[in-house]
Amino acid sequence: MRLLLVEDDSMIGAAAQEGLRREGHTVDWVRKGREAEAAVAGGDYDLVLLDLGLPGRDGLSILKSWRARAVGVPVVIVTARDAVADRIAGLDAGADDYLVKPFDLDELSARVRAVLRRRSGRSDAVIRVRGLEIDTAAKRVRWEGEDVALSAREYALLEALADRPGAYLTRAQLEERLYGWDEEIASNAVEVHIHALRRKLDPDLIRNVRGLGYTLAEAP
Ligand code: CA
C-alpha cells in the first residue's frame, strides 16, 4: 500500500519509513504540514501517518481541514501528546487511530494493517478472492491451496488488486502503489510484475481492459 509519513523528527521518521518499507509498503515522507497538504492533494494515498507537532501548520488543524473538505484518506495520528484530551480531540477530528510516541514498530505496522483492513470492509487479515488467499499480516499468498513465493513488489501489486476486487486500477495507480518518490520506475515495470504474477498464479487471474486498467474481477 502507499503511505504518506508526516514526521519532522529525523530519527523517528527514518525508523518508521524503514520499518514500514520492510512490511512491503511504499512510504513517502514529508516533514512539514504544508508538504503533507500538497502531497495528499496531489497523490493517491491509502493511509497517512500524521504527527501533530509540526513546523508550520499543526497536524490536528490539517486533519480537520481534510475532513471538512471530505478528504477521506485514513489517518493514524502518531504523536508525543499523550493526554487523554489530546487523544479524544484527535479521534474526534477524524483520525482512524491514535498512537503515542515512543511507539513499537511492530505495533505501528499492526495498527496500519488494522486501519487498512477496516477501510476495505474486512474483519480479518486474510483476503480471499477467487482461488487466492492473501494473508496480509504474514504477507503470505496461496493459490488454490498451494503456497506461492512472490517478490515484495509482486506481492504489493497483488494485494493492491485484491484489496478492491472488481475495481480497475490503471498502470499509473499501480505504479504509485509500488514506487515512492525517490525510486526510479522502469517504463514497463508494472507489466513485468503482472507477467510474473500470471505465470506464478494463473494466466487468467489478472485481466487488463484497455482504457480501464487492471482488475482481479471474475472473467465474464
Ligand atoms: Ca513533531
Concise structural overview:
The chain has 220 residues and is an alpha/beta fold. Helix content is 40%, strand content 20%. β10 and β11 form a beta hairpin.
Notes on the structure:
This protein has helices at 10-22, 33-42, 59-68, 84-92, 105-119, 152-163, 171-178, 189-200, and strands at 2-6, 26-30, 47-50, 75-79, 97-100, 126-129, 132-135, 140-143, 146-148, 207-209, 213-215. By secondary structure, the chain is an alpha/beta fold. A five-stranded parallel sheet has the order 2-1-3-4-5, with helices on both faces. A four-stranded antiparallel sheet has the order 6-7-8-9, covered by helices on one side. A two-stranded antiparallel sheet has the order 10-11. The mean pLDDT is 93. Residues 8-9, 51, 53-54 line the site of calcium ion (CA).
Give the key terms.
single chain, about 220 residues, alpha/beta, 5-stranded parallel sheet, 4-stranded antiparallel sheet, about 40% helix, about 20% strand, globular, binds calcium ion
Ligand kinds: calcium ion
Helix content: 40-55%
Shape: globular
Summarize the main sheet. 5 strands, parallel
Could you state the order of secondary-structure elements as H and E? EHEHEHEHEHEEEEHHHEE
Secondary structure tally: strands: 11
Overall pLDDT score: 93
Outline the low-pLDDT stretches. Answer: none
Number of helices: 8
Strand order of the largest sheet: 2-1-3-4-5
Report the β-strand fraction as a percent range.
Answer: 15-25%
Kindly report how far apart the N and C termini lie: 28 Å
Secondary-structure class: alpha/beta
The rounded Rg comes to 18 Å
